[in-house]
Amino acid sequence: MKNLIKLIYFIFLSIILFSQCLLAEDKKQLLTNNWSFKGYFGKFDRSALQRGYQVYAEVCASCHSMKYLSYRNLAEKGGPEFSKDQAKAIASNFEVTDGPNDDGDMFTRQAKLSDKFVQPYRNDKEAIASNGGAYPPDMSVLVKARKGGADYIYSVLLGYEDPPSGTTLDDGVYYNKFIYGNNIKMPKPLMDGQVEYNDGTEATEEQMAKDVVTFLAWSAEPHLEARHKIGFRAIIYLIIITILVYFSMKKIWSRVESEI
């Protein structure tokens, strides 16, 4: 029986070590950054979130939707925390189709805080036709949907380079060393100075990639900070309960031992 337990333990330990090696290998292949939201006490950088939304709005929104976000989310606690007036001003830049009105007709109006982000295309067919047959994925939960998460998106944004000699690419296809197969139909999206940040931060390619990935990480996990706080409080609570139970046990057994 003891040998069987040892064998099971050895197999279990081997699986863990093997999985850790695979994860370490994946991490070596991807670029990484000092993400503020990583770790048990991670928090989102509010300035990075606001800059990230600016990059999304000026660079990514022409192709990629974020259909699970509403404009009011931009002003909510735990997010970019724009002021309510700023969020209203952002929403007012877009038009949405509403209705029907009293005459039974649809009409357009300025977007409100309660509206979802306006999508760049009317439907999937139009999106595919406008991008050479490639469907631009929705970015709302993209960080959670891709293996490697934030590091993967960050790496893809910065992974464009000239193809190796002897490599031939089809028209409209670009070489990216971090994407599967190294072929991607999305042109290189970021270039130095492409965005003029409202806070005066220098818009280098790496800075824009970091900011927009931070924004996408928040959109994928908007309640991350709240979960971290709840988790920390739960751990403290369990520690206190464990200590109380331990001393209660000691007191109870001390009586038993004295009687013996």
Task: Explain this structure.
By secondary structure, the protein is mainly alpha-helical. 48% of the residues lie in helices and 5% in strands. It has eight helices and four strands, in the order H-H-H-E-E-H-H-H-E-E-H-H. It has helices at residues 2-29, 46-60, 84-91, 124-130, 142-145, 149-158, 205-220, 224-259; strands spanning 95-98, 107-110, 174-175, 183-184. It has a two-stranded antiparallel ribbon. Strands 3-4 form a two-stranded antiparallel ribbon. Strand 3 and strand 4 form a beta hairpin. The longest helix has 36 residues, at 224-259. The radius of gyration is 25 Å and the shape is extended. The model is unreliable at 23-28 (pLDDT under 50).
Summarize the structure.
The chain has 260 residues and is mostly helical. It has helices at 2-29, 46-60, 84-91, 124-130, 142-145, 149-158, 205-220, 224-259; strands at 95-98, 107-110, 174-175, 183-184. It has eight helices and four strands; from the N terminus they run αααββαααββαα.
As laid out across the biggest beta sheet, the strand order is 1-2
Please report the number of helical segments.
8
Count every beta strand, where a strand is a DSSP E run of 2 or more residues. 4
Spans with pLDDT under 50 lasting ≥5 residues?
A: 23-28
Q: Strand content of the residues, in percent? A: under 5%
Instruction: Give the terminus-to-terminus CA distance.
Output: 35 Å
Q: What is the ordering of alpha helices and beta strands?
A: HHHEEHHHEEHH
The mean pLDDT is 88
How much helix, percentage-wise, in residues? Answer: 40-55%
- Describe the main β-sheet briefly: 2 strands, antiparallel
Overall 3D shape: extended
